[in-house]
Every structure is written in structure tokens, then in C-alpha cells.
Design goal:
The chain has about 375 residues and is α+β, with helices and mostly antiparallel strands.
């Protein structure tokens, strides 16, 4: 948008190598200052500037998308690691309970109140619990390695996973908000909007290229045979030129058509990103509702399983229940406890997915609103 200014300083010497010519030769010094400016008659240069700014904004929103993806991904991997840690703790308690029950069965077998088959069944259950514990420990170690990768530092996962249970974690109360808020929060939608703005500017640039161009130029210069006489005879020049395309074999018109087609393409991408954004939010909200209902029902399932196990143990000690019924009650409690942790992890991960679907960048109500664009949260 600004004039171009250039300066030049020259020095030279001329002379003949041989012969008797009329050229005198000698030293020659010159200095020139030139400025040129192309008048933006049709707004093409301003459109090019706006387009470049839109491309820059699109790259900023690309960075925000990567940051949001990394934040949500690291949170999900952290929840995986914590959930596995909690499941390992439950498995250890289950192994301890199975060992205590094995001691009880062994005592009953020695007293003749139980069969060797009962002892073999309990030992089988204990071995299965130990195998499950080893598998969970392996998965937990791998989850920490995966978290290391997301955090970009070896050993970071071990330091990050200090929470032993997900029960104390609560997701914030999340409202989907109005559609306009969603459009502001999502960096991918903002990126598509910026690319569309750049395409609009490219159309104006292509149209301006088909119209005449007016170029203004001015210059001033001095030249002399000695440095001390440079300012004795200064000269200047002023010129204006109008350049109009006449024949380009359809190149300029094709460039304009290409810019129009590109804008239509990006408009379709913009609409698709909006539809996908609303789909992501609706899917995340449905997942939260469904997991909440499952967790409520599963909590009742766990309570009933624990009550059944307590009654089965008491009846088995009194000789009024078979070991098979006690083993079934044990398995039900173990499965319910493990499922409770998995549902808690899934519920929190669904909250993270909703955070990502809403574009991130928000806080709790007590912290006040936050702008997702450039906030870095």
C-alpha cells in the first residue's frame, strides 16, 4: 500500500586502452533517488492485505486447534492412568479378600466342614484375581508411558498421576450455551471463517488484475566528474503510466474463475465445520447424560452386590450356604467395583470431550468467562 523508494550511488571510470579516439574518459559519479507508486484504483492491493491478514489468523486458529487437541488428549490419557491406578487398588483389595476367604475355606476343610472341591474353587478364584491384578498393572504402566508421550517428557506420567481415585473428581457444570457462543469458541470454525475471508479477498485481487493499473513515479539525481560538483546540476523526472491488459489468452479470467470456485469450496467447508461442531456438542451431551444414568444404576448395583456378599459370607460361616453361592457373590462385587471406576472415568472423559467440542477456553462460573481465541487455556 505504500510507495517504493530506492536510492543508488554509482562511481566509475572510463578510458581507452589504445588508439586516438575522441572519447575523453575519466571519472564519473552519480546519485539517484527514485520512488514508484501504483494507485489502488480497484481495491486489489487492500484486498490482498486483508487476505494476508486472514491467512495469518487462520494459522493462529490452527495453533489453537492443536493446543486444544493436545490439552484434551492429555486430560483423557491422565484419566485413563488414574482410572487404572484405582482399578489396581480395587484388584489388590480383591486379592486380599480372596486370600482371607481361602484361609477360611482351608480351616473348614481341615475341620471336615467343607470339601476339597471348595478349596480348589477358591484357589482358582484367587489365581484369577492375581492374574487380573497383573494385567491391570501392565496396563497402568503403559498408560503412564502414553501420558509421557502426550506431555512430551519422559517420566512425566509417573509424577502427574498422584490421584488414587476418581471418586473425588467432579466435572464442572457445563451448559452448551447459545449457538453464537459456540461459533466464537471453536478454533476450527474460526479458522474456516478466516480462510473464507481470505478467499473473498482473493476474488477482489483477481478482479483487479483484469482492470487497468495506474503507476506513478518520480526521481531525482545528480551526476558529475568530480564528487565536489555533484550538486551543480541536479535533475528530476516525473512520470505516470497506465497499463491495461488486452490479451492474456484467458489467464486473467481463469484466475478470477478459480478464485470464485475456491471461495465456494471454502464456504462449503465453513458450513460443514459448523454442522460438525453442533454434532460434536450434541454427541458429548448425550454421552454425559447416558453415562450419568448408567452410573446411578450401577451405584445401586454395587450396593446390592455388597449386601449380597455380606449375607453370603455370614451364611457360609454358619454352614447355611454353599461356597458356589459365595463365589458368585464375590465375582459380582468385584465386577461392580471395577465397572464403577470405569464409568467414573468414562463420565469424566465425556466431560473433557464436551470441553473440546465447545472449543475450550472456559472456566467455572465462579472464575468468570474466558475467551477461547488466544487464551491458551
Amino acid at each position: 500500500l505504500w510507495p517504493a523508494v530506492s536510492a543508488a550511488v554509482d562511481a566509475g571510470r572510463e578510458g581507452r586502452l589504445a588508439g586516438r579516439g575522441d572519447a575523453t574518459g575519466g571519472n564519473r559519479y552519480a546519485a539517484t533517488l527514485t520512488t514508484t507508486y501504483e494507485a489502488d484504483l480497484w481495491g486489489g492491493r487492500q484486498a490482498a492485505q486483508r487476505g494476508a491478514g486472514a491467512v495469518l489468523q487462520a494459522s493462529v486458529f490452527d495453533r489453537d486447534t492443536v493446543r486444544l487437541t493436545l490439552t484434551a488428549g492429555a486430560a483423557i490419557r491422565w484419566l485413563d492412568a488414574v482410572a487404572l491406578q484405582a482399578r489396581i487398588g480395587i484388584a489388590r483389595l480383591n486379592v486380599r479378600d480372596a486370600e482371607q476367604l481361602l484361609a477360611l475355606v482351608q480351616a473348614r476343610v481341615r475341620a471336615g466342614a467343607a470339601l476339597p472341591l471348595d478349596l480348589a474353587q477358591q484357589r482358582t478364584l484367587l489365581a484369577a484375581q492375581r492374574r487380573a491384578l497383573a494385567a491391570l498393572q501392565q496396563a497402568g504402566a503403559q498408560a503412564r508411558v502414553t501420558l509421557d508421550i502426550w506431555l512430551g517428557e519422559a517420566g512425566a506420567g509417573d509424577a502427574a498421576v498422584r490421584t488414587q481415585s476418581l471418586a473425588a473428581l467432579r466435572e464442572p457444570v457445563i451448559g452448551a450455551g447459545v449457538p453464537s457462543q459456540l461459533l466464537v469458541r471453536r478454533p476450527d470454525i474460526a479458522r474456516a471463517e478466516a480462510q473464507l475471508a481470505a478467499a473473498d479477498a482473493d476474488v477482489l485481487v483477481a478482479r483487479a488484475a483484469m482492470l487497468p493499473r495506474l503507476t506513478l513515479s518520480a526521481g531525482a539525481g545528480v551526476s558529475a566528474g568530480k564528487p565536489g560538483t555533484l550538486l551543480d546540476a541536479p535533475a528530476y523526472s516525473v512520470a505516470a503510466g497506465l497499463l491495461a491488459p488486452i490479451f492474456s489468452a484467458g489467464r486473467l479470467a481463469a484466475g478470477h474463475d478459480l478464485a470464485l470456485a475456491r471461495r465456494e469450496e471454502l464456504l462449503a467447508d465453513y458450513r460443514a465445520s459448523i454442522v460438525a461442531a453442533f454434532g460434536d456438542v450434541r454427541g458429548a451431551l448425550h454421552a454425559l447424560d447416558g453415562l450419568h444414568a448408567q452410573r446411578v444404576a450401577q451405584a445401586d448395583e454395587l450396593a446390592q452386590a455388597r449386601q449380597a456378599l455380606a449375607q453370603a459370607r455370614a451364611r457360609y460361616r454358619a454352614g447355611g450356604e454353599t461356597l458356589l453361592a459365595l463365589l458368585d457373590a464375590q465375582r459380582s462385587v468385584y465386577a461392580a467395583q471395577d465397572m464403577a471406576v470405569q464409568l467414573d472415568a468414562a463420565r469424566l472423559q465425556a466431560a473433557v470431550a464436551l470441553y473440546k467440542a465447545l472449543g475450550g477456553g472456559w472456566r467455572g462460573a465462579a472464575d468468570g468467562p474466558a475467551d477461547a481465541r488466544g487464551s491458551g487455556r
